[in-house]
Amino acid sequence: MIHHSVLAASRKEGTFKGVGGVDLYYQSWHPEGKVRGILVIVHGLGGHSGRYSNIVQHLTPLKYAVYALDLRGHGRSPGQRGYINTWNEFREDLRAFLELIQSQQLGCPVFLMGHSLGAVIVLDYVLRYPKNASKLQGAIALAPTLGKVGVSPVRVFIGKMLSRVWPRFSLNTGIDITAASRDEQILAAYAQDTLRHTRATARLATEFFATVDWINVHATDWQLPLLILHGGADRVALPAGSDIFYQRLTCSDKLRIEYPGAYHEIQSDLNYQEVLTDLEHWLERHL
Predict the structure, then answer these.
(1) Rg for the chain, CA atoms, rounded
(2) Does a structural domain hold residue 25?
């Protein structure tokens, strides 16, 4: 039985070749009739492409197509859970995904959105590939992990120590599931979600912190229209991190909205309607 609100959208799924010829999974939702814009979603650590139904249900009636991939080591894509060799794998996988979308949807405005770790992948991609980024209409960072993260310093230290000698060493991130949302139904659904995982490897940890440092250093190079949406009570990605980054941006087209009391999965928190309305208005202004 299809949920009535997604009836107008058709869902497709497929794979594309990532770095090293890995077949990465993606899914897409398409409105009836002419597409006005495309939103590409990059999920966070332990997440997958199926976690953004609120966004899909909000945007497809407005004639947006939505594309989302499962990062390597996540969801339906192959690879050790939460492992990468180098950050370059995330970056090049995203590049291949965007090329696929742009070949399918020629000439349609594309917006790139990342959530949590996915926001770091998006920010890094745009800063590393300004030529490719110039083809995008804008970028959106949902709850980006740009400052302190809700992982114990001990776990971070272990990751940094082991990255060279045992890069595939994996441990539970220890991030409290209740930090995701204030909505009990959402938490119950997350607990049942078999595609979700809570693993991170030593190598991913060191690559992640190095990338965040690099992004913060290069904030002044940012050119693309940017929207940052962050929960004020986010214990996973502390909001101060995105605020500091935002203050350093010298581009003229930037907007940051902080939602008091909201948690980490702001697209699924109690105030998700408010978040989606702000997203919609920003997209409409940049079409």
Answers:
(1) 18
(2) yes
Helices (H), the chain: 53-59, 87-104, 117-128, 130-133, 153-162, 184-192, 202-217, 239-248, 272-286
User: 96 lies in which domain range?
Assistant: 4-149+207-286
- What are φ and ψ of residue 136, in 5° steps? -90, 155
Q: Which amino acid is at 116?
A: S
Residue 99 covered by a domain: yes
Q: Residue 11: phi, psi to the nearest 5?
A: -105, 135
pTM here is 0.92
Phi, psi of 39 (to 5 degrees): -110, 125
Q: How many domains does the chain have?
A: 1
Domain of residue 265, CATH code: 3.40.50.1820
Identify residue 180 by its one-letter amino acid code: A
Six-digit token pair at 218? 């290069």
Element (H, E) at 66: strand 64-69
Identify the DSSP state of 149: B
- What's the N-to-C CA distance of the chain in angstroms? 33
Tell whether 21 is covered by a domain: yes
> Is 73 strand, coil or helix?
coil
Name which of 79, 263, 250, 83 is nearest 187 in CA terms.
263
Are the beta carbons of 177 and 197 closer than 8 angstroms? no
**pLDDT tens, position by position, for the chain (287 residues)?**
444 444 557 999 999 999 999 999 999 999 999 999 999 999 999 999 999 999 999 999 999 999 999 999 999 999 999 999 999 999 999 999 999 999 988 789 999 999 999 999 999 999 999 999 999 999 999 999 998 776 777 677 777 777 777 777 777 776 677 888 888 888 888 788 888 888 888 888 889 999 999 999 999 999 999 999 999 999 889 999 999 999 999 999 999 999 999 999 999 999 999 999 999 999 999 99
In a domain, 173, yes or no: no
